[in-house]
Specification:
elongated; TRAPP_component; golgi apparatus; about 25% helix; 2 helices; alpha+beta; ER-Golgi transport; NO_sig/Golgi_transp_ligand-bd; 4-stranded antiparallel β-sheet; endoplasmic reticulum
C-alpha cells in the first residue's frame, strides 16, 4: 500500500476524529497517487461563524491547511495543501486538496550510534 495513502487514512480516521470529532472522505486521487482531496461534510471550527461581505475572500479555516502540511513534514513529506471548496463561501462541502511535492530523505545525526 502506498505510504501516502496509509498516512492519509490514519490522519482521517484518527487525527480528524480525535481533534475535530469528524471524519473526512479521502477522494479524488490522481493517477500518480500523489494528490487527493479531503472532503469534510461538517467542520466544528465554523459552527458559529458568518463571514461579512467584506471578508468573502477569506479562508477562515486555513489553519487546517497548515496543520496537515506540518504533520506531513514531520514524517518527511513536503506537501502543498489548498482549499478547493468552503461552505462559508457558499459551496456544498469543505474540500482540501493535498499534493505531495517530494519525499524528503531522512537525515540522521553524524555518528549517532556511538
Amino acid at each position: 500500500m502506498n505510504m501516502l495513502l496509509t498516512l492519509m487514512l490514519h490522519l482521517n480516521q484518527v487525527g480528524f476524529k480525535m481533534f475535530l470529532g469528524v471524519t473526512a472522505s479521502v477522494t479524488n486521487w490522481d493517477a500518480d497517487g500523489t494528490s487527493f482531496s479531503f472532503i469534510l461534510e461538517d467542520n466544528p471550527l465554523v459552527d458559529f461563524v458568518e463571514l461579512p461581505d467584506t471578508c468573502q475572500g477569506l479562508y477562515y479555516c486555513n489553519i487546517l491547511s497548515g496543520v496537515i502540511r506540518g504533520a506531513l513534514e514531520m514524517v518527511s513529506m513536503k506537501t502543498e495543501v489548498t482549499w478547493i471548496r468552503d461552505m462559508l463561501r457558499g459551496d456544498d462541502a469543505y474540500e482540501l486538496r493535498v499534493k505531495l511535492l517530494k519525499q524528503v530523505p531522512e537525515e540522521y545525526p553524524y555518528k549517532d550510534d556511538e
